[in-house]
Amino acid sequence: MKSIAALHNVVTPWSDGLEPSDAELDAIEWEMPLILADVELLDARIAVLDRTPSELDERRIRRARRKMLDVRRTLTNQAATASMPGGAA
């Protein structure tokens, strides 16, 4: 039996358009603190999925949530300041 895989073209051909643009990479870099804070919060929540959270677990979750909210507030304020004419908020 012959393999037909070599006879077909690639389903999704690789093109230069699949790479993120510089603007998209800049946006990802700008949001990276929020992404990392979200990951930290998810890690804290995942750790207690199969057990009752201890006092230490609850503190870790609260700390991660406060950090995520702080980073979100900071990024929102930076975006608002950047969008205002003259940089004034």
Account of the protein in words:
The structure is a single chain. This protein is mainly alpha-helical. The protein has 2 helices and no strands.
Largest sheet: none
Reading the helices and strands in chain order gives HH
Radius of gyration: 22 Å
Structural class by helix and strand composition: mainly alpha
Q: How many H/I helices?
A: 2
Contiguous low-pLDDT stretches (5 residues minimum) are: none
Helix content: 55-70%
Shape: flat
Describe, in short, the structure shown.
The chain has 89 residues and is an all-alpha fold. It has helices at 22-47, 55-83.
Salient structural properties:
single chain; 89 residues; flat
Q: How do the strands and helices of this protein lay out in sequence?
A:
Layout: H1 22-47, H2 55-83
